């Protein structure tokens, strides 16, 4: 029956760490450490009753050498529902997991964007959505996925429609091609000095806009600032 | 290789913690392993090194702190348990 608990409130972090060390060495209870306000730290011990009583005495003894115990209590045979409310070890873990999942999703999306360099306006949209989603942190995955899929669906539908209409393809395509770069090319670069204030991401975007740029696609996204600047020096006048 | 000992010193304020951490790392052969701050401003400094050095460093730091009335607690753990570092590290900013 490992469902008894002891709560021990300690004044100061130093004393609590010292107590945790002695408990780890001399007893077999599960320990959890929580910070509460006014510089007090709460130690939660879990195990069966004799173990806990022994551990509690040990902890109090060791804490009194350094600092002082504020209060302590033993809870015998705690109800599982209460246990879940007060002793949720996974809480901090959970937030971290969500963060890591969001990061992995971001990586996936950026890699997908790099594979589709010709759909620039769409990728810009996805990036914007991604930024807002990261700020919110509430339902990022669904937003990102939905926006992405909708963009791709739109483009495929448009393409199919254009193919079906036959002769109109050329005219429509020209229009779309003209409209897309206007939306993207916010940085007009004609000299080498125009590149001074830009960071790596902006440099890469500018590099993708150039048709005669020496490297293409994924190579641009792999290249760092110095490499990009070498290529820019080959193309642009000073 | 000898197992590293852990020294803990808890002070009233962040400024005094930084001050003694600097002095301890400067004067003795110890490494700063972690610094943690509680919600009311109590700041705890953790140092690592060989037992003698750690003990001397903690004594020195405690003496320096008591001059300014900023010492809360101090302790030296000669051979810290391996799992203890999970409790110390806590949440680090990524």
Automatic annotation (TrEMBL), chain A:
<feature type="domain" description="Bacterial microcompartment">
    <location>
        <begin position="4"/>
        <end position="77"/>
    </location>
</feature>
<dbReference type="GO" id="GO:0031469">
    <property type="term" value="C:bacterial microcompartment"/>
</dbReference>
<keyword id="KW-1283">Bacterial microcompartment</keyword>
<protein>
    <submittedName>
        <fullName>BMC domain-containing protein</fullName>
    </submittedName>
</protein>
<dbReference type="InterPro" id="IPR000249">
    <property type="entry name" value="BMC_dom"/>
</dbReference>
<dbReference type="InterPro" id="IPR050575">
    <property type="entry name" value="BMC_shell"/>
</dbReference>
<dbReference type="InterPro" id="IPR037233">
    <property type="entry name" value="CcmK-like_sf"/>
</dbReference>
<dbReference type="Pfam" id="PF00936">
    <property type="entry name" value="BMC"/>
</dbReference>
From TrEMBL, chain B:
<dbReference type="InterPro" id="IPR050575">
    <property type="entry name" value="BMC_shell"/>
</dbReference>
<dbReference type="InterPro" id="IPR000249">
    <property type="entry name" value="BMC_dom"/>
</dbReference>
<dbReference type="InterPro" id="IPR044872">
    <property type="entry name" value="CcmK/CsoS1_BMC"/>
</dbReference>
<keyword id="KW-1283">Bacterial microcompartment</keyword>
<dbReference type="InterPro" id="IPR037233">
    <property type="entry name" value="CcmK-like_sf"/>
</dbReference>
<dbReference type="Pfam" id="PF00936">
    <property type="entry name" value="BMC"/>
</dbReference>
<protein>
    <submittedName>
        <fullName>BMC domain-containing protein</fullName>
    </submittedName>
</protein>
<feature type="domain" description="BMC">
    <location>
        <begin position="5"/>
        <end position="89"/>
    </location>
</feature>
<dbReference type="GO" id="GO:0031469">
    <property type="term" value="C:bacterial microcompartment"/>
</dbReference>
<comment type="similarity">
    <text>Belongs to the bacterial microcompartments protein family.</text>
</comment>
């Amino acid at each position: 029956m490992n469902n008894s608990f002891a709560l021990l409130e300690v004044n100061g972090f130093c004393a609590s760490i010292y107590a945790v060390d002695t408990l780890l060495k001399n007893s077999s209870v599960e320990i959890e450490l929580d910070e509460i306000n006014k510089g007090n730290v709460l130690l939660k011990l879990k195990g069966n009753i004799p173990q806990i009583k022994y551990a509690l005495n040990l902890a109090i003894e060791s804490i009194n050498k350094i600092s002082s115990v504020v209060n302590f209590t033993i809870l015998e045979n705690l109800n599982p529902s209460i246990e879940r409310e007060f002793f949720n070890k996974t809480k901090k873990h959970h937030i971290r997991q969500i963060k890591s999942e969001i990061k992995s999703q971001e990586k996936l999306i950026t890699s997908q964007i790099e594979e589709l360099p010709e759909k620039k306006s769409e990728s810009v949209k996805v990036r914007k959505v991604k930024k807002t989603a990261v700020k919110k942190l509430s339902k990022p995955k669904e937003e990102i996925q939905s926006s992405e899929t909708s963009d791709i669906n739109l483009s495929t539908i448009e393409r199919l429609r254009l193919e079906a209409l036959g002769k109109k393809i050329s005219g429509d395509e020209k229009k779309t091609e003209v409209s897309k770069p206007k939306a993207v090319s916010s940085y007009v670069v004609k000299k080498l000095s125009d590149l001074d204030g830009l960071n790596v991401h902006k440099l890469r975007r500018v590099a993708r806009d150039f048709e005669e740029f020496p490297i293409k696609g994924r190579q641009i996204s792999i290249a760092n600032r110095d490499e990009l600047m070498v290529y820019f020096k080959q193309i642009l006048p000073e | 290789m000898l197992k590293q000992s852990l020294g803990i010193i808890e002070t009233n304020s962040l400024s005094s913690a930084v001050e003694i951490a600097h002095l301890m790392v400067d004067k003795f052969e110890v490494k700063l392993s972690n610094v943690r701050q509680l919600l009311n401003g109590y700041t705890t400094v953790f140092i690592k090194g060989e037992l003698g050095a750690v003990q001397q460093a903690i004594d020195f730091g405690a003496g320096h702190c008591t001059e300014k009335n900023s010492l809360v607690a101090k302790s030296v753990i000669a051979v810290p348990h391996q799992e203890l570092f999970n409790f110390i590290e806590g949440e680090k900013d990524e």
